[in-house]
Amino acid sequence: MSHDDTAWTKVKPAGNGFVVRDPAAGRGVSLRAVVVDGQGNTPTQTIRNAYRGK
Predict the structure, then answer these.
(1) Could you tell me the pLDDT band of residue 54, with boundaries at 50, 70 and 90?
(2) How far apart are CA 26 and CA 40, in angstroms?
(3) pTM across the whole model
(4) CB 2 within 8 A of CB 29
(5) Which tens digit of pLDDT belongs to each residue from 25-49?
């Protein structure tokens, strides 16, 4: 996850999801998933501004 789209932090699982710190009002949180399959392929999915702070 990232609050500025430049510094990415790994988030540990928590139950069936994860917990991140809410962004400041008017700011967004971006989420990125990177997976590795058995052949070493590493697709990446990024959702910029997945949600915004109130």
Answers:
(1) confident
(2) 38
(3) 0.75
(4) yes
(5) 989 999 999 999 999 999 999 999 9
Q: Which amino acid is at 32?
A: R
Amino acid identity for residue 23 in this structure: P
Give the total residue count for the chain: 54
The whole-angstrom separation of Cα 18 and Cα 40 is 25
Helix H, strand E, coil C: the string for the chain is CECCCCCCCCCCEECCEECCCCCCECCEEEEEEECCCCCCCCCEEEEEEEEEEC
Domain boundaries, the chain: 13-52
